[in-house]
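hi! just following up on the protien thing from before. the input was this:
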Amino acid sequence: MAQKRFQNKSNFDKYDKDGDGIITDEELANMEAIEEIERLNRKQRHQRMMAWYALVGMISYPACIIFCEFVGLVKSAELLADLAPTYFIAAAGIAGAFMGISAWSESKRNSSTSSKPIVKRP
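and the predicted 3d structure came back as:
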């Protein structure tokens, strides 16, 4: 089988584990698994950021109401206070769903990866 050579500074250089400039069949086979892991990491990072923003919003929401009262925007403070229960339920749902799904997927991953590896190592 012919060896696979790529251009210098190609997007595939990161998959050439031994650095010889040739990407073997094994390295190509691992490429898909590596990209899937990277995709899952990005997804989890974005979900974590969304949960943190929801928590920060829950903390800062009362401060916004107090600030509106302090500067004399009484009607604005009343409107924000009227929306608060809906906002807190939604934000708590986002944060709680993230924590619940994270715990569930971690326990599922631990039980499934104990029997088989994700990526083959040479």
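The mean pLDDT is 78.
The first helix runs from residue 25 to 70.
cheers
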